[in-house]
Design goal:
The protein is an alpha+beta fold. Helix content is 47%, strand content 13%.
């Protein structure tokens, strides 16, 4: 209630009073007829005066409560009922809450899990139950690149390979709270996320960094920076998910996105020299292999040709030898039956084979009976040439 200056103007209503109904004391410290002794001028009113002023204001606010006989303020049963109903209504209204379309509400009763609520309006018992909203469908990203880190994590993106090389790897992990069903008697994933995880983002980053180090530590540098990145990403994702499941975190790893791995700048030049030497070695090996592929087939072909010719010659000589042996045996059989005729035939065949190519004609004198026979020499010569 605003303060009124209760002066005696126009009505003779008494001395000036302060905002709480007290009579101001003079500056000199006198009691002004109602003070408590010297030295109290300018001090705040005492508690009794404040209580009396408050009671007067309540009586004016509820004029029927005190009656007309000067009695103090009293509550009526009707006023108590209205006040109780108002408090109950306020308590009930304060328990209404809403769950968004991409959220789940985890309800607890005195801190113990009591249930899971979906999107829409719901009610809880205030001061008895509590609800925490969990963004189950919100995709979140954890970045591991060493930026902003300090202390032991200042170089978390530098990792050691199995061949004792260092590689600089920056990657991100996309994750969300899983909606997958769980075995009976086990907390839902949203409740696991609330009860088992204190700092989800930092935990995902720590688990992801450890999983990537384990994957990189089992591989050599060359496949990591060339063609083996897809395998690194998949193995890392599986390791992260297995670790988070062992923590009962309720988190689902969606994907791992890795930037192109690089060699740290401090050793980049030396590594480039190693790569250059390795490429030169590969080039020389390829040239030698190509030359080998050209020479060896030719040499193998020549060797096969020689072998085949030798086998053919062996077969031909063997066949000729067998044929000559068969001819000799047949001649011998004929000779046994008719020695004279066989000798004559062999003699004629030998003479024919020796003199057959000579341009001469031999006549047996005994065969002509002393008469010179007529011989068509030109025709005989032409026939001989045709036969040859």
């Amino acid at each position: 209630m605003p303060w009124q200056d209760n002066t005696g103007k126009g009505g003779g209503r008494g001395p000036v009073r302060g905002p709480w109904g007290q009579t101001p004391r003079p500056p000199g410290g006198g009691d002004n007829g109602g003070g408590k002794g010297p030295g109290r001028g300018g001090e705040p009113p005492d508690l009794d005066e404040l209580l009396r002023a408050s009671k007067q204001r309540l009586k004016r606010a509820f004029p029927g409560a005190g009656g007309g006989g000067g009695q103090g303020f009293q509550w009526s049963p009707k006023m108590g009922a209205f006040a109780g109903a108002g408090l109950v209504l306020l308590w009930a209204i304060s328990g209404i809450y809403q769950v968004g379309p991409q959220e789940q509400g985890v309800t607890t009763t005195f801190g113990k899990y009591a249930g899971l609520t979906g999107p829409g309006l719901h009610w809880r018992a205030p001061m008895i139950q509590d609800v925490k909203l969990v963004p189950v469908d919100k995709q979140q990203t954890a970045t591991i690149d060493g930026s902003g880190a300090s202390g032991a994590n200042a170089q978390e993106n530098l990792m050691l390979t199995s061949d004792r090389n260092i590689v600089d790897i920056s990657f991100t992990v996309d994750w969300k709270i899983s909606r997958a069903s769980v075995p009976e008697g086990e907390l839902p994933n949203a409740a696991k996320f609330i009860f088992n995880i204190e700092d989800p983002e930092e935990m995902v980053k720590a688990v992801a960094a450890a999983a990537m180090r384990e994957t990189i530590g089992a591989k050599e540098l060359e496949p990591i920076i060339t063609s083996g990145q897809a395998d690194v990403v998949e193995q890392t994702r599986v390791r992260i998910q297995e670790t988070l499941d062992s923590y009962k975190s309720g988190i689902e790893v969606l994907r791992v996105n890795m930037e192109k791995p690089e060699v740290p700048g401090a050793v980049r030049d030396a590594f480039a020299d190693v790569i250059k030497a390795r490429n030169e070695k590969d080039r020389m090996v390829n040239e030698a292999q190509r030359e080998s592929n050209q020479i060896i087939p030719v040499a193998e072909g020549d060797a096969l040709k020689i072998i085949q010719e030798a086998r053919a010659y062996s077969a031909r000589v063997e066949a000729d030898s067998v044929g000559q042996a068969d001819r000799f045996n047949k001649i011998y059989e004929e000779y046994r039956r008719a020695p004279q005729v066989t000798r004559q035939r062999m003699y004629l065949e030998t003479v024919e084979s020796v003199l057959g190519d000579m341009n001469k004609i031999i006549i047996d004198k005994k065969a002509s009976g002393g008469v010179v026979p007529y011989l068509p020499l030109n025709e005989l010569k032409s026939n001989s040439q045709q036969v040859n």
